[in-house]
Structures are given as structure tokens and as C-alpha cells.
């Protein structure tokens, strides 16, 4: 069984985001980019399933500009077998990504597709769900545990106040949450080996998908900065300020 892992190239999670002066979006010039952290968890999970004998091949796919190949190489260096790069010029919205992934799934026939629960750039949390709907497959989102057993998979999901376990008929969609695993670092020999692993280049048109955006960004703003604190001289003053200024005490 093949496992397909879609991986997105996003601004590295350590980078402090700068909004463009005209508010049209986030400034990406000279910014460190990395694999979306939830996708690293997805690659790790696919590799563990393969190591446990539940899968035979792990394929990473990225939809994006030429540099998305670096993100695919990261997945290959972690241990994935091969990559697919669907080359695009501008940003691609979740629905178009899901439609392209449907085309990839139809061509490859994976038993499981493991995506991140969300990409940390746009925080959409849509692609996995849309892909499940387009393919007509079951979905186990926000997974903290995945057990593949023959034609079925059991997914433990992170839900408000606890966890929920669902059983899915394969093929199925799984999206990863933070507690699923801790991704491995690529070793130097594996980084070298990854350079020789194949990456097929495709275009959205190969899957009959039009990536023209359907949404228009009206404005992007920085979060409101935190105001400075003050020091109080006594508990009496603190209580008085909480009552009269902060309005949090009756
Ligand atoms: P989103 O719905 O944008 O929050 O993304 C959820 C997940 O969909 C990500 O964690 C990836 O696994 C996958 N995904 C989204 N965009 C892309 C892309 N351009 N290329 C590959 N995978 C993607």
C-alpha cells in the first residue's frame, strides 16, 4: 500500500512575520521557508507505518513554486521514497490544492493520504476535509494516533475535552495533530541519498485544475501590540485598579 503525504512550503515557524506596507499580504522576501510542521508529522507517521510493514511506499507531493522542490527533498531526506512536484506560479488556495491532490490520488492509488491538519501560513484547515469530500473517502482529522489494520484504519482524534476514536474503511484521509509523533531529523547520509531520489514534475493542467484564486485578500494587519504593564505599590492599590480601571472585579 502506498501512503501519499502532501507537504507545503511555508514561512518557518521561528520567523517573525512582517506585513507588507500596503497590507496586501505577508512579506516573503529573504524569509526562511520550511516544511509546514504538521506535514513533518505526517511524513514521520507515513515512515513509521512503512517501517511497521503497513505500507510499501511513501510519496511526498508539494504544490507550489520551483522552491517547493526543497520541501520535497526534506521529506525524501527524512526517508520518503519519491516526490511529485506540481509546479505553480502564484499561491494556490485549498480547494485548488484539494482538486490537484484528487488527481494525484487517482493516478497513484494510495491507501492512505496523510496531510497536516493545517498549514501555519494561512491557517485554513480545509484541504484534508475538501479532499475527502472530492474523493468520497472517509476522514480522520486531528489525529493523535493511527492504527492501520488490513482494509481499515483506526484514528484517535483530538476533540474538545478529550479524544474520539473512529474506524475508517481504506482508502481514507488522515490529518495530523501535534501529539501524533515527534518527527525525526534527517541524517547526513539520508540527506545525500535524497539527492538521488526521483521527483516527477507536473502542472495543475495535467490534472485539469484551474488554480485562479477565488478569494480576494482585502487587507492584512499586524496583531495589536501588547500594552506595557505597571507596578503597583500595594495589594490595596492592585484591587482598586482591578475594580476601577480594568473592570474585572465587582
Ligand atoms: P490548509 O488547509 O491550507 O490549512 O492545509 C492543510 C494541509 O494540506 C497541509 O498541512 C498540507 O498537508 C496540505 N497542503 C496545503 N497546501 C498544500 C500545498 N500547496 N502543497 C502540498 N500540500 C498542501
UniProtKB/TrEMBL annotation:
Q: Which organism is it from?
A: Lichenifustis flavocetrariae
Q: Give any GO molecular function from the UniProt entry.
A: electron transfer activity
| Protein name (database record) | Electron transfer flavoprotein subunit beta
Tell me which Gene Ontology terms the entry assigns under biological process.
carboxylic acid catabolic process
Specify one Pfam family.
Answer: ETF
Please state which protein family the record places this protein in: Belongs to the ETF beta-subunit/FixA family.
Ranges that cross the membrane: none
Q: How does it assemble?
A: Heterodimer of an alpha and a beta subunit.
Amino acid at each position: 500500500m502506498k501512503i501519499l503525504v502532501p507537504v507545503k512550503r511555508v514561512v518557518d515557524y521561528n520567523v517573525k512575520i512582517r506585513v507588507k506596507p500596503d497590507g496586501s499580504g505577508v512579506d516573503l522576501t529573504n524569509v526562511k521557508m520550511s516544511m509546514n510542521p504538521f506535514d513533518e508529522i505526517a511524513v514521520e507517521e507515513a515512515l513509521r507505518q512503512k517501517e511497521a510493514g503497513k505500507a510499501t511506499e511513501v510519496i511526498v507531493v508539494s504544490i507550489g513554486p520551483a522552491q517547493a522542490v526543497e520541501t520535497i527533498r526534506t521529506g525524501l531526506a527524512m526517508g520518503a521514497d519519491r516526490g511529485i512536484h506540481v509546479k505553480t506560479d502564484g499561491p494556490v488556495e485549498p480547494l485548488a490544492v484539494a482538486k490537484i491532490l484528487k488527481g494525484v490520488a487517482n493516478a497513484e492509488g494510495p491507501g492512505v493520504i496523510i496531510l497536516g491538519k493545517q498549514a501555519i501560513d494561512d491557517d485554513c484547515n480545509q484541504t484534508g476535509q475538501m479532499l475527502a469530500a472530492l474523493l468520497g473517502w472517509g476522514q480522520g482529522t486531528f489525529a493523535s494516533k493511527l492504527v492501520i489494520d488490513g482494509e481499515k484504519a483506526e484514528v484517535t482524534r483530538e476533540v474538545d475535552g478529550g479524544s474520539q476514536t473512529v474506524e475508517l474503511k481504506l482508502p481514507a484521509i488522515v490529518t495530523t495533530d501535534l501529539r501524533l509523533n515527534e518527527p525525526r531529523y534527517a541524517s547526513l547520509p539520508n540527506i545525500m541519498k535524497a539527492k538521488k531520489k526521483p521527483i516527477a514534475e507536473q502542472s495543475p493542467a495535467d490534472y485539469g485544475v484551474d488554480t485562479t484564486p477565488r478569494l480576494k485578500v482585502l487587507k492584512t494587519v499586524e496583531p495589536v501590540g501588547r500594552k506595557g504593564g505597571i507596578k503597583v505599590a500595594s495589594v490595596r492599590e492592585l484591587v482598586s485598579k482591578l475594580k476601577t480601571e480594568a473592570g474585572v472585579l465587582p
